[in-house]
Write a structure and sequence with these properties.
The complex is a heterodimer of chains A (117) and B (113). With 117 residues, chain A is mainly beta. Chain A contains no helices and twelve strands. In chain A, the strands form three sheets. In chain A, strands 2, 5, 6, 10, 11 and 12 form a six-stranded mixed β-sheet that branches. In chain A, strands 3-9-8-7 form a four-stranded antiparallel β-sheet, with no helix packed on it. The termini of chain A are far apart. Chain B has 113 residues and is mainly beta. Helix content of chain B is 0%, strand content 50%. Chain B has no helices and eleven strands. In chain B, the strands form two sheets. In chain B, strands 2, 4, 5, 6, 9, 10 and 11 form a seven-stranded mixed β-sheet that branches. The chains are: A mainly beta (117), B mainly beta (113). The interface between A and B is medium-sized, with 25 and 32 residues.
Chain lengths: 117, 113
């Protein structure tokens, strides 16, 4: 079974609209972290937002927010007021384990978001 | 803002040769990672490193691979006897602690001919 599932391979959104990128995860570990990264066509990986499994509130970072629904095991990324520069691949990732060790991230397959003027 | 630096940005190597990919993590970070991304595919975890030893490694990270922190700033990935299927983008990442977000470098695109 996939640990991270991103069901939208591609999305087209009009500029200035809000967009939600879906991510569901699978883990039996009670302590985990969820991350979103942006990968523009230039290839770098840009950290956007983080949600810990014990965090009571949904994470927000500027125009990015994470809709964390723990019971449903979903961690959707919401981008408000989309801009042309938001066009990129977006990856959801999970770190399992709260031991504080150097745990590797498991990534989803990504969603290719294209913002149209 | 401090960032992870990777060199070279692009490496072309003949099959069977050894390559060393270099990374300078963010200076106050203690946890280091290598990932790879084959063209058009998702990012895959290779190995993590803490306190001068490997902390975790994936099944991809076999005897062909090794990591080293030769001094206080560099973190390297060595690939011995490269194969065509080693062609990929290799990302280095670092984090302040195991619980903090991992920050990625811009990657090294490795092309094996």
């Amino acid at each position: 079974a996939q640990k991270i599932t991103q069901t939208q391979p591609g999305m087209f959104v009009q500029e200035k609209e809000a967009v939600t990128l879906d991510c569901t995860y699978d883990t039996s570990d009670p302590s985990y972290g969820l991350f979103w990264y942006k990968q523009p066509s230039s290839g770098e990986m840009i950290f956007l937002i983080y949600q810990g499994s014990y965090d009571q509130q949904n994470a927000t970072e500027g125009r990015y927010s994470l809709n964390f629904q723990k019971a449903r095991k979903s961690a959707n990324l919401v981008i408000s007021a989309s801009q042309l520069g938001d066009s990129a691949m977006y990856f959801c990732a999970m770190r399992e384990g709260g031991r504080g060790g150097a745990d590797g991230l498991t990534f989803g397959k990504g969603t290719h978001l294209i913002i149209q003027p | 803002e401090p960032e992870v630096t990777q060199t070279p940005s692009h490496q072309v190597t003949q099959m069977g040769q050894e390559v060393i990919l270099r990374c300078v993590p963010i200076s106050n970070h203690l946890y280091f990672y290598w990932y790879r991304q084959i063209l058009g595919q998702k990012v895959e975890f290779l190995v993590s490193f803490y306190n001068n030893e490997i902390s975790e490694k994936s099944e991809i990270f076999d005897d062909q691979f090794s990591v080293e922190r030769p001094d206080g700033s560099n973190f390297t990935l060595k690939i011995r006897s490269t194969k065509l299927e080693d062609s990929a983008m290799y990302f280095c990442a670092s984090s302040e602690s195991g619980m903090q977000p991992q920050h990625f470098g811009d990657g090294t695109r490795l092309s094996i001919l």
